[in-house]
Amino acid sequence: MQKELESNINSLNFKISEASKVVSKNLNDIFLIAVSKKKSIEHIITAHELGINNFGENYAQELKNKAINLDKNINWHFIGPLQTNKAKIVAKYADWIHTIDRKKIAEKINDECKKINKVISACIQINISKESTKSGISPEDMLVFAKYVNSMENINLKGIMVLPSLGEENRKQMQMSKLLHEELVSAFPDAKYLSMGTTNDFETAIVSGSNMIRVGELIFGKR
Ligand SMILES: *Cc1c(COP(=O)(O)O)cnc(C)c1O
Questions:
Q1: How confident is the model at residue 27, as a pLDDT?
Q2: Which of 46, 98, 137, 143 makes the best surface tag, with the fewest CB within 10 Å?
């Protein structure tokens, strides 16, 4: 497994470097999250030994099982849909949440973090494709909601997360996300992350202005 992961990570880093050159950035400007959902603890240990410190998980219970069994230096990013009855687990074990998309969940996360004296980093999820089946707030509501999230004591607003549709709308939605993120940053200068891009579209995402990518299968293989 080690050899395979090493070669996957090297080739990913090379592709990130090449894409970032297009926008006058380099590898270090792009925050990489290795999405480890449904992958074993051994996979995570190996990737961690190869220099990866940030891992993404979609399910609260899986996050907990992994977090309690792994190195305390690992940063955990919760990137799955968030239910209020799982907020306590996620607040405890995640360092970041990328899927804050409604007041109720923001309040619950804030309350749970307050109880354990923790400040969590968070991105607001935006439904950039406007598909009714996808989560996230509407782009028009971003600034009002961001103001609300930013007012919470135990949540540190770090940016936005989007899942653009693949296919011909991909690049256009990415450009819209970039513009939206610029609006956010002018109001909230610390919200400097645009979490955008997966195995399928991370290069286009970087060229479009993403500075945080969430890559699973290209690192760990098919799920
Ligand atoms: C699973 C997942 C990813 C990673 O997808 P890959 O195709 O494995 O790179 C990224 N973001 C979110 C929100 C996910 O659920």
A1: 98
A2: 143
**What is the distance between the terminal CA atoms of the chain, rounded to a whole angstrom?**
15
Residue-wise pLDDT tens digits, 85-96:
999 999 999 999
- Mutating to test ligand 1, I would choose from 8, 11, 35, 99 the residue with most ligand atoms within 8 A of its C-beta, which is 35
Task: Give the binding-site residues of ligand 1, using a 6 Å CB cut-off.
Answer: 35, 37, 58, 79, 163, 198-200, 214-217
The DSSP code sequence of the chain is -HHHHHHHHHHHHHHHHHHHHHTT--GGGSEEEEE-TT--HHHHHHHHHTT--EEEES-HHHHHHHHHHS-TT-EEEE-S---GGGHHHHHHH-SEEEEE-SHHHHHHHHHHHHHTT--EEEEEEE-TT--TTS-SB-GGGHHHHHHHHHT-TTEEEEEEEE-PPSSTTHHHHHHHHHHHHHHHHHH-TT--EEE---TTTHHHHHHTT--EEEE-HHHH---
Residue 74's CATH number? 3.20.20.10
Q: Taking the model in full, what pTM does it have?
A: 0.98
Number of domains in the chain: 1
Do 86 and 63 contact (CB within 8 A), yes or no?
Answer: no
Please state, in angstroms and rounded to a whole number, the distance separating the CA atoms of residues 107 and 39: 31
Domain residues for 131?
A: 2-220
Per residue in 124-139, pLDDT (tens digit) is: 999 999 888 889 999 9
